[in-house]
Structure formats: C-alpha cells, structure tokens
Design a protein that fits this description.
The chain is α/β, with parallel strands linked by helices. It has eight helices and nine strands. It has helices at residues 6-12, 23-32, 81-89, 98-105, 121-124, 128-131, 149-158, 182-198; strands at residues 41-48, 60-64, 75-78, 94-96, 113-116, 160-164, 170-177, 209-216, 222-223. Strands 7-1-8-9 form a four-stranded antiparallel β-sheet, with helices on one face. Strand 3 (75-78), helix 3 and strand 4 form a beta-alpha-beta unit. The longest helix has 17 residues, at 182-198. It is globular, with a radius of gyration of 19 Å.
C-alpha cells in the first residue's frame, strides 16, 4: 500500500469515517480539506449492487452537468462533406476522416473526446486497439456516434461527462472544480445522482446504491448519505 503524505493524513483526520454526510456537508468538507496547489477536480464515486458481467447490467452513458466541469474539452470529429463543415461551424477543435485516422495511428492524442458520424465508424473501428484502452472510442450510448454533430459538440463543450461501471461495480465521474461555488457542485452532484437512479437495471437485485463518496484529486473520500438527495 502506498504511503500517505502528511497533508493527506491531516486532511483525513477531519473526516468522520463512521458518518455519512449530507450532500451539502460533504461538498463543503472536501473543499475545505483540499490541499492541492492547483484547482483540483471534485469527483464522485458510486459502489453499485450490479453485476457488470451481465450484459443488461453494464451501466454506461453520458450526462450534461448544468454547471459544466471546469475543463474545456478538445473535441475531434470524424466526418465527411457537409457533416465535416457542420462540425467546424459548431466549434470542433479537429475535423477530418482518413487523415486523422492515420495521425492517431502514428501516436497523436492531442484531444479529449471523439465524435463520429455512423458512416465513419468502419474507418474509426481500425483504431479500436489504441482508442479503446484510453476510453476514447466513440459509442452510440454516450452520444458520440451520431449524425447530429452540432448537438454532440455543444453538449461536450457545455460540460458533458461520460460514466461507465467498472468490473467491481463502481462508477466514477467528475462534478467540477474546487473553485466552484458549493451550490454549483451540489447541483452537478444531484444531476449525477438522478442519472444513476434512472439507469438502474431492472434485473439488479438487492440494494442498488451501496455507497457514495465524494473526493478531490488528492484528498480523502467523504461518504455521502443517499437520503440527503
């Protein structure tokens, strides 16, 4: 186990590990004990009572946070013809087709999100081995394989975040920065929570949300009371 820094241990002492804080208390606490020398990201983590090995319990999707994430996403769009012109007009950072496929194959990854029109997926699919492990492969479930490239770009630029359950049944997502007002972080948090409730698989048995934690980039986690939502 990695040794914790003195700053982390000092921050951790201010968290009651036996208590589940209200969403407002938890957000205020993680901000107050954050010790990073930069504007750290605030993240939430859900431990869910699902079995990711079952196809109908592989939770994955995207949601637009009302107050954004505090990060400007660089959007790359795979499109041709009129759709390429539409993507450029909508503010995509990079637009192309086979030229960008070759560039990425060569090791270029100067972007954060990829959007592709359906007709481009045959070419983009060749990049599966390099995009997949980085979580960059476009997917209809996250709205990144679409003919409506304008909507996709606008949502991403506005603060769209993707989520996906891991092998252990956990889902993590950013909800903003430490510099955000408490109210904005709480609103983003509630949006994520509403989404988690809506995507509950009908086949999931027993307790669905087992644990909710909010934390900052380097800080300790703070348990959140589900009932406070």
């Amino acid at each position: 186990m990695a040794k914790k820094s003195k700053q982390y241990l000092t921050a951790a002492k201010q968290v009651d590990i036996l208590k589940a804080y209200s969403v407002e208390e938890a957000v205020a606490l993680v901000k107050s004990i954050d010790f990073a020398k930069f504007d750290a990201t605030v993240e939430v983590a859900y431990r869910l009572g699902v079995d990711p090995k079952k196809a109908d319990q592989q939770i994955r999707g995207a949601v637009v946070l009302p107050n954004g994430t505090g990060k400007t996403q660089r959007v790359l769009v795979f499109a041709k013809g009129e759709k390429a012109k539409e993507a450029e007009a909508a503010g995509a950072d990079y637009v192309g087709d086979s030229d960008l496929v070759q560039k990425i194959s060569g090791g270029w990854f100067d972007f954060d999100v990829i959007v592709a029109t359906p007709d481009m997926m045959a070419e983009v699919g060749r990049l599966g081995r390099v995009l997949g492990p980085k979580g960059l492969m476009p997917n209809p479930k996250t709205g990144t394989v679409t003919m409506d490239v304008t909507k996709a770009i606008n949502e991403i630029k506005a603060g769209k975040v993707t989520y996906r359950v891991d092998k252990a049944g956990n889902v993590q997502a950013p909800i903003g920065k430490v510099s955000f007002d408490d109210a904005k972080l709480v609103e983003n948090f509630k949006t994520i929570n509403d989404t988690m409730m809506k995507v509950k698989p009908s086949s999931a048995k027993g307790q669905y949300i087992k644990n909710i934690t909010v934390t900052t980039t380097f800080g300790p986690g703070v348990k959140v009371d589900q009932g406070s939502f």
